[in-house]
Amino acid sequence: MRTSSIAFLAAGTAVLLLTGCSTHDKGPYLPEWARTPAYENSQPIVLLDPAVQYSVTYTGVQEQTLPDGRLEVIIHLRNRENRRIEVQANCVFKDQNFYLTGDETPFQTVILPENGQQDLIFTSMNDRAKRYTIRVRQAH
């Protein structure tokens, strides 16, 4: 009785070892293309969700290089609705080839009154920033 238990345990262990190591992985894969265009690489302003796309627009962007070489960007956000809304915005600074410089501002909350406008100012931390993307999302 004892030998049959040991034999059964050994057979069960062998089956687990053989099936536990099997895989259905077929090797390396190619990356999948994004289903939406890479707007953050080509546009200065990106609205991150449908609610913000419906409610917010911008009336202008000003950019200037400060005397120490840093980039300063001012955006004029506008509420298109008849109700007060709350959004968040940040700025990702990039070099002249649209590569990230490692300089990204934290999201700041903006309260836009009914049909009102609000200016936001973003300043880069270093002089490598030549381009930017301002991202706007709904505040939670």
Low-confidence runs: none
* Assembly category: single chain
Q: Please trace the helix and strand order, writing H or E for each element.
A: HEHEEEEEEE
Distance between the termini: 66 Å
Structural class: alpha+beta
CATH class of one domain: Mainly Beta
Q: What is the gyration radius calculated from CA atoms?
A: 27 Å
CATH architecture of one domain: Sandwich
Number of strands: 8
Q: Main β-sheet, in a few words? A: 5 strands, mixed
CATH topology of one domain: Immunoglobulin-like
Assess the beta-strand content as a share of residues. 35-45%
Overall 3D geometry?
elongated
Count the DSSP helices. Answer: 2
Mean pLDDT over all positions = 86
Give the proportion of residues in helices.
10-25%
Summarize the structure in words.
The chain contains two helices and eight strands. With 140 residues, the protein is an alpha+beta fold. It has a domain at 43-138: Immunoglobulin-like (Sandwich), CATH 2.60.40.3230. Strands 1, 4, 5, 6 and 8 form a five-stranded mixed β-sheet that branches. The longest helix has 19 residues, at 2-20. The termini are far apart.
Features:
alpha+beta; elongated; 140 residues; 5-stranded mixed beta sheet; 3-stranded antiparallel beta sheet; 41% strand
Annotate the secondary structure layout.
Layout (H helix, E strand, L loop, with lengths): L1 H19 L24 E3 L2 H6 E10 L5 E9 L5 E10 L5 E5 L3 E5 L4 E7 L7 E8 L2
Parallel strand pairs: 1-8
Antiparallel strand pairs: 2-3, 3-7, 4-5, 4-6, 4-8
Short summary of the structure?
With 140 residues, the chain is an alpha+beta fold.
